[in-house]
Amino acid sequence: MACVANGRVSTVTIVLIVLQVAISQERPDIKVNFEVLKPKGLRISIPDSSSSKISLFAFNGHLNRAIGSDDVGSIRGEVTKATNGRWEFEDPNVELKVGDVIHYYFIVTVDRVGYVIDNLTYTVGNLDNRSGGSNPNCQSSVTVIRGSTTPICSGQTIFEDHFDSLKENVWQIEQYIPIDNPEYPFVSYQRLPSDPTVSIVDGNLRIVPKLQQNQPGFTNMSIFTDNLNLFDGCTAPACSKQPSGADILPPVVTGRITTSKSFVFKYGTVHIRAKLPQGDWLYPEIMLEPFLKKYGNTNFASGVLKIAAARGNKELNSGPQDYGNKVLYGGPVMDFDCRNEVLKKNVLTNGRMWGDDYHEYSLRWSPDRIILLVDGVEWARVEPAVSGLAGRLPRSCNHVPRMLLAGGTRIAPFDDSFYITLGVSAGGISEFEDNLTSKNGWPKPWSNGARKAMLNFWKDLDAWYPTWSQSALLVDYVKVVAL
Q1: pLDDT at 268
Q2: Residues near 430 by Cβ (< 8 Å), separated by ≥ 6?
Q3: Residue 240: how many CB atoms within 10 A of its CB?
Q4: Residue (of 366, 205, 206, 403) closest to 270 by Cα position
Q5: Average pLDDT over residues 427-434
Q6: What is the CATH number of the domain that holds 55?
Q7: How far lies 221's CA from each of 96, 190, 195, 224, 243, in Å?
Q8: Are residues 235 and 115 in the same domain?
Q9: Domain CBM39: where (predicted)?
Q10: What pTM was estimated for this model as a whole?
Q11: Which one-letter DSSP state was computed for residue 31?
Q12: Which residues contact 4 (CB under 8 A, 6 or more apart)?
């Protein structure tokens, strides 16, 4: 019954499990400690036990209203490791006053047995001055790092990598077939033993797409006949594929890396200096993806933040409209059918392409708005309407009622934890509209809704593959700064 996201069971889905496990167990005598900070902030903890082994502490609470043991709290945290003898987390955004009442329950796993301790309240009696830790000038930030209890100061760099080496304790190199990706790209993500898709070259991260038929043991006919087996090192459920008729193997092998295992955060400014890939029907994956998928099982349902993207075709048109490498786009994606309603565009008019040079692409993500910048200059922002970010979209967007029912904030679905994703993809059914033409009026070779879309893309290989002379995504650095 539980949903496992990136190897972790979420607080929402763990409730039913622990209820079943602990129903016949005597509840442990554990007291929750509250430290209410001023001007704002709340620190919640339980003591570590020397006589029994605690492996999880999860808290869910509402301010001045009741909460059920199957609700997700507006005040919530999950801790999987004790620090200095306490299981502690801090929410720096809560502003409380004397007399406020927190209605809460918590989940604790003791000696591998889970317990739900519910129907609890805490009344605020006094406020403690925030010391700011060892930095007396620290101004508390709304930025949150998942799993960290250390106070974060505004302007603090909370993540940075200049790619002097490929730090595999930071970045997970993906290996799987993205069959449940709503963009349905015509690729597989692979960690190749030789001639890798992901590498460090001259101090830059390099992610480059290749052809499956050129890999050892494959030929051009392998697309129709050979099984693709990625079980050794697979990082997602789809680890193999056997082609059948028009349902061929993904013709493109590419790379993707994420911080899903090491760095997950909420709110902040992300800076990525990169040179975007060029080549027909390619596009970069430079984005933030949801960690727990709070608003639905797909990434689009729970929101994706595209920091920067530009289609790889140097010439790409639909009538007078330009869709090629001169057009930068980015912003929130909340629903597959409505993705273009909020995505913003920035067109170069100096004769250059976005893939010709390095640029610093930035995204400032706050509880109030999402701002896109390039080379330090703001070029777009998205702000919630009165009814929230969902209120900016047509009623036909099917995610709207789901977010309202889930009790999301005005910035929902971008009010939960996200991780960084970098990669290169090709084709698919969302990045390239139908009826586009590339160089010399050459038509897009597939229709997005067609059963033979990937096959028709591959059959046009002689037209698009020669354009992939600068097909790599090159990244100089990634940096995240607290708000």
Answers
A1: 97
A2: 182, 183, 184, 336, 339, 448
A3: 12
A4: 366
A5: 93
A6: 2.60.40.2140
A7: 66, 20, 22, 6, 11
A8: no
A9: 27-129
A10: 0.73
A11: P
A12: none
Q: What is the tally of structural domains in the chain? A: 2
Cα-only R_g, the chain: 24
Does residue 428 belong to any structural domain of this protein? yes
Residue 467 belongs to domain spanning: 160-481
Give the pair of three-digit tokens for residue 352.
Answer: 């250059």
- Based on the fold, state whether residues 415 and 324 are members of the same structural domain: yes
121 and 171 both lie in a single domain: no
- For 433-477, the pLDDT digits (tens) are 999 999 999 999 999 989 999 999 999 999 999 999 999 999 999
Contact indicator for 217, 228 with CB cutoff of 8 Å: no
Within a domain: 244 = yes
Q: Are 334 and 303 in contact (CB under 8 A)?
A: yes
Considering the domain architecture, whether residues 75 and 187 belong to the same structural domain is answered as no
What sign does the dihedral 291-297-298-300 (CA atoms) show?
A: negative
Q: What integer pLDDT is reported at residue 7 of this predicted model?
A: 40
Written as one letter, the residue type at 133 is: G
A 10 A CB-CB count for 245 gives: 9
Last residue of a domain, one of 87, 112, 130: 130
Q: How far is CA 295 from the centre of its chain?
A: 13
Looking at the structure, do residues 218 and 335 belong to the same domain, yes or no? yes
Which residue from 423, 429, 434, 446 is spatially nearest to 183, judged by alpha carbons? 429
